[in-house]
């Protein structure tokens, strides 16, 4: 189960772009808490503490205690150049609120997978996360899927996965695939010809760069 993370926060007296920029200059990150039919609360967090929480790898599927309120992160906006967090949205939840979260998928027992171990197959992952509907008190930190006994051509669907008690997939109208074990990629004659052509071009370019220019020859002769 995901750990509960606590973040200290202060109420924002002013909102708007100018106020937000001033907060960021001071190492703070603007945020808002909303939900449960209450008025949104504008707050700001310490950027260092928020970054530490983000680096856990399971921030988005953890219960976050902010200013004494139980919340679930719904969105984190990052700066397009610096990748620093610039705003966070938190949803108020009760202790046993049913929530929808994206839970990371982890694959185990690769050494016991004949399709990969003996057949040199490749694990083609189509979903790195599974959206689950769970009790807020029982959010899993990850879903582990065993590859034991899997052969080339086998597909792993959500129906093959044992989910934690009380959890159910958010998508219920189809048995969606999560991963497939595919045959190893065998280079074709066309691929090899293309690689040879690229290598020949690169070699010619390198040789041309290494040749001295007329000016360089004159300088050496002088």
Automatic annotation (TrEMBL):
Looking up SUPFAM superfamilies in the UniProt record yields: Ribosomal protein L25-like
Give UniProt keywords alphabetically. Ribonucleoprotein, Ribosomal protein, RNA-binding, rRNA-binding
Asked if the Swiss-Prot or TrEMBL record annotates the protein with the keyword Ribosomal protein, the reply is yes
Please list the residue ranges that the record marks as compositionally biased, kind Low complexity. 199-210
| CDD domains per record | Ribosomal_L25_TL5_CTC (cd00495)
GO molecular-function annotation terms?
5S rRNA binding; structural constituent of ribosome
Q: Where is the composition biased (Acidic residues)?
A: 211-222
* Residue span(s) of domain Large ribosomal subunit protein bL25 L25: 7-90
Q: Ranges for the Large ribosomal subunit protein bL25 beta domain?
A: 98-184
Has UniProt tagged this entry with the keyword Zinc?
Answer: no
Q: Where is this region: Disordered?
A: 190-222
Which InterPro entries does the record match to this protein? Rbsml_bL25/Gln-tRNA_synth_N (IPR020056), Ribosomal_bL25/Gln-tRNA_synth (IPR011035), Ribosomal_bL25_b-dom (IPR020057), Ribosomal_bL25_C (IPR037121), Ribosomal_bL25_long (IPR001021), Ribosomal_L25_dom (IPR029751), Ribosomal_uL5_bac-type (IPR020930)
> Which processes are annotated in GO (biological process)?
translation
- Gene3D superfamilies tied to this protein: Ribosomal protein L25, beta domain, Ribosomal Protein L25, Chain P
Any GO CC annotation of this UniProt entry? cytosolic large ribosomal subunit
What does the function comment of this entry state? This is one of the proteins that binds to the 5S RNA in the ribosome where it forms part of the central protuberance.
Give the similarity note: Belongs to the bacterial ribosomal protein bL25 family. CTC subfamily.
* Complexes and interactors: Part of the 50S ribosomal subunit; part of the 5S rRNA/L5/L18/L25 subcomplex. Contacts the 5S rRNA. Binds to the 5S rRNA independently of L5 and L18.
Q: Output this protein's name.
A: Large ribosomal subunit protein bL25
